[in-house]
Amino acid sequence: MRLRNPVEFRNGEARLSLTSRLAAANGFKSMHNFVTITGTSIRSIHFGEPDAIAMLSGWSGFDPEVLSAHRLKTVQQGATWKLGEAMMSRDMLPGYRHRYCPKCVACDLTERENDSHLGAYVRVTWTTRAIRHCPQHGCSIVEERCEPHELGDFARFVSAHRDRIMAQSAAAKPARAFELDRYIEGRIRGHTANAYLDGLETFVAFDLCKYLGNFHRANFDSGRPPGPRPGETEEGFVIASSGPARIEAVVAEAIDRVKPQASEAKSVFGKLRVWLLRNYQRTEYSSVVELFQDIAERHMPLGPEDVFVLPTRKRHLHSLRSASIEYNLMEERVYQLLLRAGLVQKSDLPSSRIYFDAEKGNRVLAEAAETLNTSDIARHLGIDIDVARTILDAGLIPRVENVGRSRVYSRVRLEDYNAFYAKLDIRILDTGQSTELVDTPAACMRARCRNPEIFELAVQGQIKLYRSRDSDGALLGLKVDPAELREAIVEKRRRIAAARRRDDNSSLFAGDNLIDGEDITRRLKASGCTGHELLKLGFLEQVDAVCPTTWRKKKYTTRKSLATFMKHHVSLSGLANECGTPPRLLRHKLYDLGIRPIFEQSEVGSRTAEFYRRADIRKYL
User: Does residue 114 sit in the same domain as residue 162?
Assistant: First the structure.
C-alpha cells in the first residue's frame, strides 16, 4: 500500500535514505519504528532483498527494478561485499556512522522551502569508505557517529543538525585531487576507465593506490619543498593508473636510491610489503603480488634463500657480498674482477649495496672460482709457499687477474697449473744414477740464479729436472745438473742482453766496451782487488751496468778510461821490471826521494798493487 505522503526517489539514492525520508514524511518517530511496524528489517532493505524491495516499492510507488539498483551482496563470508558493480573489502563498510558531503546536503536543503530535510538524501556512493571525497564537489566526506537504532535514518539526522551541516558546507574546501573517488564511483556504476586498474577488484585497486602512495611518500619526500599537495592515496592513484611499467619505474628508482641489501627490503617497501604479505594467499591479489615480486627480483639482489613476498624464483642481481658467499671469493677480489669486466663502477658503497647483473657476473666469477690459490699450489707441488709465490711472480703460471694498484690475488686457473706441471717433464731418478746432480738451492748458488729461473728453463726444455721415486711432493727434492744449469743461465742472460740495451730498471747491459773489476786487474797484471779499488777510489771512470751472465748490477769502466790510466800510471812491479831493481828496494828508493804511490794500501785495507804517476818518477829515473 502506497503511503499517504510519498517522496521523490532520487537517482543514485540509497534505499535506506528513501526509507528514512518516507518515515519522516509520514510522521513516524524514526525509521527504525517505521520498519518495525511493517514487519521487515533495516538490513533487508539495505541489502535489497526481494521481499523488502517489493514492500518498499508498495510504500513509495516506485518500480522494484529502480529500487534494486546498487544492490549489496556479501561475498566470502563477510570478507568482501559488493556495492553495485564494485567489490569492496570489509574495512570499507561505514559502520555506525552517517557519511555525507555537506555541500551536497546543503544544496538539497536549499531546493525545498518546506520540510527541506526531506529533500536531503544519501548518495549510494557515500555508503562505502572507499569514497573519501565527494566526486562532485571534491570536499571531504563527513562522518558522524550514531547509535545502532539511528543507522540509516539520515532524514532525522539532517532535521536535528541542519545548522551544523550548513556551517560545515560553508567551511568545506575541495581537495587538490579526488580522481580516485571519481574512478571508484564509476566502478560502482559499472563504468570502465583504466585498462590496468579495471582488471583488479575495486578494493584491491584502492588498496594498491593507498599503499603505493605511502611508498612514494616514504622514499621521495626527503628534500621536497613544502607546499600543498594531493593526499598519499591520490599520489598512488596517479602512479597506478599509468600501469605496471610506471609502477616498476617508481619502485626501481626508490631501490636505486637506497641500494638495500636483500634482508632490508622492509626498509624500502615499508607498509606496501606488509600489505602484500598479509594478502598474498588471496586470489584477488595474485596479479599485484606477482607484479611486485617480479619487480623486487629484477631490481634487488634476491637469491633462492631470500623471500620478498614469495620465495625467489630466479636471481637477477647479485651484490658483492652475496656473490662473495656464493662463489667463495673475497669481496675485494669480486669487486676488482667485476670492475675490470665493466660490470660495476667505482663506488664507496658497502659491499652489500653494490649490485651487478648475476648472469653476466657468473661468466667472470665462475671461471675465477675454478682456481688454485698460493697455498693450494704449494700443497700440490710439495714446496714451500714462498717458492710457490716466486713461481707466480715470475709469470710461469698466469694469474686470473692482472696486476693492478690493488692487492694481487694469487689465484691461477686449474688448467694453467696443469699445463705448467706437464711442461716441467720431471724425470724419475734411478738408484745409482749420476751423483753430479744437486738440489735446487745448491744449484741456484752455483749458477747465481733464482728458483723460478730453474723452472722457467725446464718449461722451455733447456734443462732437465729429476726427483727420486720416494719423493712425497711433485717438486719436493728436485735435482738438477749444475753445469747444465750454469750454461743455460749464461746463455739466457746473454740472449736477453743482446736483445735489449737496458734491463727492467733502465740500467745498461755491460757489453764489449765495458770492463769490470776482475778484467781491470787482469789487464793491469796486478793482484788482488786492484781493479775494484781503482774504480772505488775514482781513478777510473765508473759506469753502472748489469752483468749479462750473472744478471747483477755492478761497477764497470770503459776501455778508453783504462787506456788513459795505463798511459799515465805504472805499477811498482812494472817499474821494477823496467829498472831491473827488486820491487822492495825500489819502493824504499822512491820513498827516500819523496815519491809516493797514488794510494796507500793501508787506506783501502786490502792487498793491492801500488801505482805511481809517470810524471812523478820521470825526473828521477
Answer: yes
Q: Which of 100, 84, 110, 113 is nearest to 153 (CA)?
A: 100
How far apart are the C-alpha atoms of 159 and 213, rounded to whole Å? 39
For residue 163, being part of any structural domain is answered with yes
Domain CATH number, residue 363: 1.10.10
CA-based nearest residue to 292, from 238, 237, 255, 241: 255
Question: What DSSP state is assigned to residue 199?
Answer: G
Q: Are strands 371-373 and 355-357 parallel, antiparallel or unpaired?
A: unpaired
CA dist., res. 130 & res. 193, Å (int): 17
Domain annotation covers residue 310: no
8 Å CB contact between 90 and 78:
yes
State how many domains the chain has. 3
**Predicted confidence (pLDDT) at residue 494 exceeds the cutoff of 50:** yes
What's the whole-model pTM score?
Answer: 0.66
Residues 383-418 have pLDDT tens digits of 888 888 888 888 888 886 544 445 555 778 888 888
Partners of 556 in the beta sheet? 516, 543
Residue 572, domain member (yes or no): no
In a shared domain, residues 219 and 110:
no
Residues ≥6 apart with Cβ < 8 Å to 276: 285, 288, 289, 292, 309
Q: Please give the residue range of the domain that contains residue 204.
A: 197-296
Among candidates 68, 181, 96, 78, which has minimal Cα distance to 135? 181
CB 179 within 8 A of CB 197: no
* C-alpha torsion sign, points 384, 387, 389, 391: negative
Instruction: Tell whether 24 and 161 lie within a shared domain.
Output: yes
Q: Are residues 219 and 153 in the same domain?
A: no
Say if strands 553-558 and 508-509 run parallel, antiparallel, or are unpaired: unpaired
Q: Is the pLDDT of residue 420 over 80?
A: yes
Sequence-distant (≥ 6) Cβ neighbours of residue 335 within 8 angstroms: 320, 344, 351, 354
CA–CA dist 120, 142 (Å, integer): 15
* Final residue before a domain boundary, out of 296, 325, 349: 296
Q: Give the three cell numbers for residue 268.
A: 624500502
| DSSP single-letter state for residue 90 | G
CA dist 76 and 617 (Å) reads: 129
pLDDT tens digits, 316-359: 999 999 999 998 888 888 998 899 999 999 988 999 999 999 99
Domain presence at residue 540: no
Say which range, 459-463, 479-483, 596-600, has the weakest mean pLDDT.
Answer: 596-600
Question: How is residue 361 written as a grid cell?
Answer: 657476473
Distance between CA 362 and CA 369 in Å, rounded? 10
Check whether residue 238 and residue 329 sit in a common domain: no
